[in-house]
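Quick log. Single chain, no ligands specified.
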Amino acid sequence: MELAVGASEATIKSLLTKLGTLLAEQYALARGVRSDIQFINDELASMQAFLSNLSNSADDDHDDQTKDWMKQVRDVSYDIEDCVDDFTNGLRPDSHRDDWRSKARGFLYELWTLRRRSSIATQIADLKQRAQHVGERRSRYGVRDPNTSSRKTGLDRYTAAEHQEITRRLIGINRPVGVDIAQLEKWIRSQEKKLGVLSIYGFGGVGKTTAAMALYRSCGVHFNCRAMVTVSHHTDPDVVLRDILRQVKTQVKDQQVQNSTVSILEKNNRAPVAPIWMPSRLSQIQLYCRNQNKDGKTSDKEHDAITKDLLKYLGEDRYLLLIDDVWSSSMWQNILNCLPKNDQGSRIIVTTRFEAVAKTSLVDHDHFHQMDILSPYDAEDLFNRSLSECRDTQSSKANQNDQVTPSRVWEMCGGLPLPIVTMAGLVASNKHMKPEEWSKVCKTLFPDQQVCHKPEEFMRIIDYCYSVLPSDLKTCTLYFSIFPKGRKISKKRLIRRWIAEGFVSEKQGLSVDDVAETCFNQLIERQIIRPVQNSTDGKVKSCQVHDMVLEFIISKAAEENFVTVVGGQWSIPTRSNKVRRMSLHSSDSKHAKKAYGMNLSHVRSLTVFGSLEQQRFKSFKTGIVQVLDLEGCSGFKAKHASVSDICKMTLLKYLSLRGTDISELPANIGGLKYLETLDVRQTGVEELPKTVVLLERISNILGGDKRTRKALKLPKEIKKGAMKTLHVLSGIEITEGSTAVSNLHELTGLKKLAIYKLHKSAQMFDDLLSSIQYLGGYSLKTLVIDDESSDFHDKLGNMSTPPVYLSALELSGKLRSFPTWITKLRDIVKLTLSATALTPENLERLRDLKTLFSLTFSVCATKHDPDIVAILQKNKSDYGGEIFFPPGGFAELKLLRIFIPLLPSLNFSEGAMPGLERLELCFKRLEGLHGIGKLESLHDVILTVDGEAGNTTKAVLTDLKEAKGNYVLDIKE
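-> predicted structure:
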């Protein structure tokens, strides 16, 4: 029942905003229409208040009449929104000018649009009657008023302000509870040369994936290459194999560097020929086959090519694979039959819910492990640990009083890890609940000392956790049904879409971006979603939804007709003849035909995963589409018919073409006057059209490629007053002769400026420096500048009023010395210095930055360059080939990354970097690594050897492997 409350309330909230805007604008309306719109606005406002009271009522057991009435509210709200969107799309506001020419043009425009205005007036009148009838029907059929005298027992309605900031942290692999990991590690590391398979099985929520991930992480150092994939119920085995191949190809490519570069300083003083010295990042975008049959299956030719490549890249190596959540024996057999069965001691970890699948013995060397429920002791330990982690996500944790939670809270979970963790999230998010109130909750869920025995019973717990969410969080939770099972979901992608859909709005003095971030933080704390990757600034970068939680969310979304999913693990059929949000998980001809058999004229949100070759945007009523997300899709060429269709989506707010093969944006994209986010990262788009300056509401322009530093050119001229709403301008190139940079200072709302390419020009440098100084006094928090010449970096050091409020700073290129004002950045969290000498002096200057969370030193070398050689020589010779990290300083540093080809010996003293949790090193040669055992908080050491290691490096790595530290060692050779 709470589902309808949340979704309907969010729909009305978004609609009321549109109605208010419509009433404020001076449109040429037919007689009586404005009063009809005002009536609809007032009626819906009253309905929203009623729904809000229902949401907060202590009585959750609403009758069928109430449920049906709420669905009617939702449906009429959707139809009114369609009408309003048609209105604003088809008509323009009246001119406010009083001269005779404007009046004449207005009169002619009214004549020209007479029929359209008459049609809209009729629709609005009909909708007014429907809204009136829905309101009257509540009293006519006895829909009961909510019990406003009491609210849900003890459950907090969260305060946005107190959840805005979170404690920064790094994501690590969860330590499994109740599993003898040491024995399983021993089996994986055994000297048996035959291919071995470890099958971990057990029903949903028992912790299979957590155990498998821990093994994959701790044992990975003993294998030459590895890959991890998640399988869905209907996944084509070739898609799984292709994903494995993609990952191992990336690893092999990174290793194919000439060995001669190891001694570059000793031979001819040449700099190494290599890309940016940073560990390769595997793309999170699922790659799909473009050579497919009409039914979506991989062709025999493509299958043979995949098998041949797997033999090429894995046939001679010791590899480790993790294949998560296999659903059938036949699928498992098809996958295994294509993997090389060498005698190198390779291992495969498989997880499955089914014992029959696990015990399908396909190799001579196999091992089976059944995941069992936790003992009472382990259950309590997991609950307390999870509760502590949930509390730690909040910056206000120090002010929280310790809770006394009845043991029944975890005992009723029956030893199942997922229910235990979920209940910990519920307890953490309701810190004022009393023990007797928790006892009442437990009795409601499992009376008479019953416990959760199976996955179906877990649904009671997740249903309750969902039902007590505030209405805006309910709607945000339903949104996860759009994404495929196992998908890592970008936080920024998610919250930008929430904003575009109108699910969040300004409140409690916070901007809409801050409120969206707050909603995300709340879902993390409540364990509805789980973080899987953090940015280097310690904030969550991407998240996942557990399969069982996602299954629940999808069932709720289906009840509400919230989204229509085609071709997914759990497809959501439309329960109405009107599709509002569509998500195409599989876009082969079979599923495309199914999609286009629906009524798509009401679709306002379209998400496509896979290929666009079968897609026809003409099937949609483009004028009302507000979210178009094509991230990672193939088949999207510049001349694709869909490119021109995009500019017909005049109400579009969110447009993502990231990772597609588009190379040019349409020239008339400036007509999308409502567009808030334009994402063309990792595409062939090299330049923004001139009309982009006409985007009145644009908030985020995202381009280029951070890893390759491919950049996006701005228009040469940006008029004063253009794009005043811009918050993020990322991945841009500022060309010589451009006057755009002189007007950057007008973008006073800019929070992030990332320049990936900067042409040399004295006047442009002066203008840019002036803009940075000016913006630094407003909202600018993140500054990224890549200057190949380093001339601009030299100017940065001479700023009279530096941007002292920066929280993130990245300077790349040839940074001979960093600006002295960096030591005055009192809010700095993330600092990246590229091509900067790693010297004791530089470390001494940075050690007192009290807020610094992550620090990166790197050397970029794309060609022979004497400046780079000088920096490398300085690292090696000036300090005897050793770098010492003394005690004290870097009090809050959690992440230290050093990416240098020839890495001198690093020595950590007792008491150095007391909070350091992760050390990442990338190198061709490492001369020594000493004292890491003295880093008391260290739990991750990640070493990447770029190329074939020499004898000195091999000896260092061998010593590290044999040492027994309290950290996880991950070596990628």
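The first helix runs from residue 2 to 24.
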